TrEMBL record:
GO cellular component, one term: exocyst
Cross-referenced SUPFAM superfamilies: SNARE fusion complex
UniProt function note: Forms non-fusogenic complexes with SNAP25 and STX1A and may thereby modulate the formation of functional SNARE complexes and exocytosis.
Listed GO biological process terms: exocytosis; Golgi to plasma membrane transport
Family annotation (Pfam families): Sec3-PIP2_bind (PF15277)
Encoding gene (name): stxbp6
Organism this protein belongs to: Gymnodraco acuticeps (Antarctic dragonfish)
Major localization class: cytoplasm
The protein, known as: Syntaxin-binding protein 6
Source species taxonomy: Eukaryota, Metazoa, Chordata, Craniata, Vertebrata
Location in the cell: Cytoplasm; Membrane
Keywords noted in UniProt: Acetylation, Coiled coil, Cytoplasm, Membrane
GO-annotated molecular function: phosphatidylinositol-4,5-bisphosphate binding
Membrane topology listed for this record: Peripheral membrane protein
InterPro entries assigned to the protein according to its UniProt record, in alphabetical order: Sec3-PIP2_bind (IPR028258), STXBP6_PH (IPR037821), V_SNARE_CC (IPR042855)
Amino acid sequence: MSVKSAINKEVFIPHDEKMLVAAQVKRRTKKKIPFLATGGQGDYMTFICISVTNKKPSCVSITKVKQFQGSSAFVKRSQWTIDQLRQVNGIDSNKDCPEFDLMFENAFDQWVACSAGEKCTFIQILHHTCQRYSSAQKPDFVNCQSKLLGEYQTVDSVIFRCKVYLKRKRKAFVAHNGHLLRQGNSILHSAADSVTSAVQKASQALNERGERLGRAEERTADMMNSAEQFSVTAQKLAMKHKC
């Protein structure tokens, strides 16, 4: 089970809600902590989640969820309704970047997502959710790429999300099927060894054949020399008998 599926199961489903999207984030600037609030629980991961109730009329919430180091549990920290959201700042409308800001009635947070793709998906779904569920004044989306806002960019947004999804699935496949890749490499190495062995055997056979040919040529040369000597001797004997 993925982390986000676990958040949905532990935090939202028990309250009859479903999570629409979650982005893992970190603060861009350190938050000032009151003196009496020191002595926290150590390192943690933070997720900004958007959820909607299953019962009508639907109520949409933006929730900050944390998971502390050494614990498998997820803890709900802060929560706002979508009508309390005043502004979403995408930081740069010309390129993908992981930074974004959320301004509420009584809070302002500066975040950096774990990736630009995750931030873009979060803002796209947040914008669509605001257009659908906000009953009061809708929040302002500033410095956001046009592909994340408006229905005319739906196709590009779907393609973008599909690319993110396929990239995630490819990483999961490599992680879970690494042994198959290793087996494939082993097979390739075995095949290479077999080819090398075959070449070595062929080379050895050619060398042996060359040695045999060399010996045959030497014997042929010896026989030719012997034949030539026999011919000379026979001629001498013939001349001797004539005399």
